[in-house]
Amino acid sequence: MLPIAGCSDAPFGSKPSANDGQSKPSRPASEHLVTTITAERASVAVPHERPGSLRLRRLVRLHSQEEGRITELQVFEGDEVAPGQTLIRLEDDLLRAELDAARATAAQERLDLKRLEGLAGRGGASEDEIAQARTAVAVAEAQVRVLETRLAFTEISAPFAGLVTARLAEPGDFVTKNTHLLSIADPASLIAEVLVSELVLPQLSVGDPVQIRIDALGGLIVPGRILRIHPTLSETGRQAMVEIAFDQIPAGARDGQFVRVRFESRGIPRLMVPFRALRQDRDGPFVWIIDEAGEAQRQPVEIGVRITDQVEIVDGLEPGTQVITRGFLGLAAGKEVRAIETSRL
Q1: Which letter, b or e, does each residue of 313-323 get, where b requires 16 or more Cβ atoms within 10 Å of its Cβ?
Q2: Where are the domains of the chain?
Q3: Phi then psi for 101, rounded to 5 degrees?
Q4: pTM of this prediction?
Q5: Does residue 38 contact residue 342 with C-beta atoms inside 8 Å?
Q6: Do 18-45+269-344 and 47-56+188-265 share a fold?
Q7: What CA–CA distance (Å, rounded) separates 258 from 314?
Q8: What is the DSSP code string of 238-307?
Q9: Per the record, where are the segments of Polar residues compositional bias (predicted)?
């Protein structure tokens, strides 16, 4: 908006000022001086700020898949772990013994099958006996694989590089199947989550830049981008969850910290006027305009969003209208006015 020269609201008819050694002629007593703007539609992006929280997007809860006593658990909350690192061991003596027995059984079944296949050439074994022997070998080998898998379950490893966020058991504890033992989080998966109104969502897109402010880090502001917009709205607030990814995660950022996310919606055409031009009475908001006859008229309006020192006019005002911004003292409907300066937004 172009700068608007100051306008005095002093009583009219005051003594004229000197200019280049000559005096200006006195203006008519009925003349009312004002400053105006010409209202026009322009593409305006509205900034929005929403509160939210930091959250670890990748968090794995490690459970026991076998029952037994914990023989080894050496990591604690906050410890870094490497992918494939062994975190927990359960006692496995009984399973190892069962596995040894199953392997011996499978070996014997294979020997029996080989012997019957040798006898079959001399008529010493029927086809049914050989089929039964082959089935017994398959069952015995399957039992070996089951026990090998169960034995592997007694050793729990880190699925990825991360941090231990929860330790829920101790060495010596006896745990049953599906007991939650540890939680591992990926620090690189830290994101911000905010709820956004259904009115703002259509103006946002995945990849739009945002600013993330973390109060716990002294109000640090870091850049980010919209990672994901959830497809459903809450029934109470009619809001959807929006996930924000950091361009670079700052040191000290933690899961659960309070954040404020500031983003700008895409620019849409809006009819804006300076906020100082807006008047208010018991009938509602209005502005003063200059009609074709050069007279002031009171124009009721419906307002929308306020952006810094401007306000959106949703209804009641047409583009191209001259809106009075200064000179309201003594102004009345039908009064002749003269604009000493007109600008465009």
Answers
A1: beebbeeebbb
A2: 18-45+269-344, 47-56+188-265, 94-141
A3: -65, -40
A4: 0.64
A5: yes
A6: no
A7: 35
A8: -EEEEEEEESSPPTT--TT-EEEEEEEPPPEEEEEEEGGG-EEETTEEEEEEE-TTSBEEEEE-EEEEEE
A9: 16-25
Q: Is residue 275 classed exposed, middle or buried when 0-12, 13-18 and 19+ CB atoms within 10 A define those classes? A: middle
Query: What number of H helices and E strands is found in the chain?
Result: 2, 26
Residue with tokens 């000559």: 22
Which homologous superfamily is 47-56+188-265 in?
A: Efflux pump adaptor protein, beta barrel domain (2.40.30.170)
The hierarchical CATH code for the domain 18-45+269-344 is 2.40.420.20
Q: Name which of 182, 190, 191, 192 is nearest 81 in CA terms.
A: 182
| Amino acid at residue number 27 | R
Q: Are 217 and 196 in contact (CB under 8 A)?
A: no
Q: Which of 285, 337, 321 is nearest to 306 (CA)?
A: 285
What are the tens digits of pLDDT across the range 92-113? Answer: 999 999 999 999 999 999 999 9
pLDDT tens, 18-39? 444 444 455 555 679 999 999 9
Report pLDDT for 275.
93
